[in-house]
Amino acid sequence: MSPATVVIRSVKGRSVGEVVEEILDRCDWKAVVPSGGRVVLKPNLSTPYRDMARCSNTDPDILEAMCRILLRRTPHVLVAESDGMRYKADEAFEIMGYPALAERVGFRLVNLSQDEWREVDHPLLRGWPLPRTLLEADCLISLPVLKTHATTVFTGALKNQWGCLPQHNRLLLHRYLDRLIVDVNAILKPRLAVMDALIGMEGRGPINGRPVRMDYLLASRDPVALDAAAMRFVGLEPLAARHLVLAAEAGLGEIASERIVLDGPVVRWERDFEPAKRDLPIRLLDLISRSKFLTNHLIFDGRFFYPLRRVAVTLRRIGLFQG
Fold first, then answer.
1. Percent of the chain with pLDDT over 90
2. What is the model's pTM?
């Protein structure tokens, strides 16, 4: 099977565990997971809040199925995430039930923000070390959620590794976001990705969009091909996501539809997703993040951020901002 094969399966009428096992086998997962190796799974944990967790964060059923299968091949299975801008990774772990799951299944949870960090040889990452756990892993597996994104158009297998930066203030690097998504993936080299499309998100993702019940899983050993196929699956244009184009140009995978093999009875979702609108508040946030002073005082300081966010939410509701 070509590494640029993207496997697409519905979970309707089947258990998540059964489908996960099938798509992993179709991806020939044992070819990238060494026996006894150190395996790290990177879920997408975008929020610690229960009301949006199911459509923003990686479903625990997928995580459980992945870990049970991997533990047959190696006892060294870790699930790792970094702190968000305003919450600890441990809070997101807890809201998704990961700690109880870890105890029951037998994997280990790691907060990458509390891990040992090591400097990497990259001009844009000087002073921004990466976690030792990831740098020493034998296999990194990405578990993204299929979502639109207000800044990068789409967040999937590639964008999920942005959360591998352990610093909660990584927003300061957003001016280089597209380039660094590519370079972080090139450094960490995820070997496999399984995308959670049980409940996707359209509109103003990756946290505040609308949940869409889909009941699909997608997987590939090529993260670029997976993201490109997932975008086409919901009617989005892969060339609109600059980080995806840059990743293909850097040789991290395939983006052209004719070079991607789709393995699945359905290769197109029933309707197009509404893209995220890059409205005035989003554009202002991007501009503010270019200044360390303004970011520290207007975004990281809740005394200013929350009132400003309330104003933006109110003005969006009355239709003042357009994309």
1. 79
2. 0.93
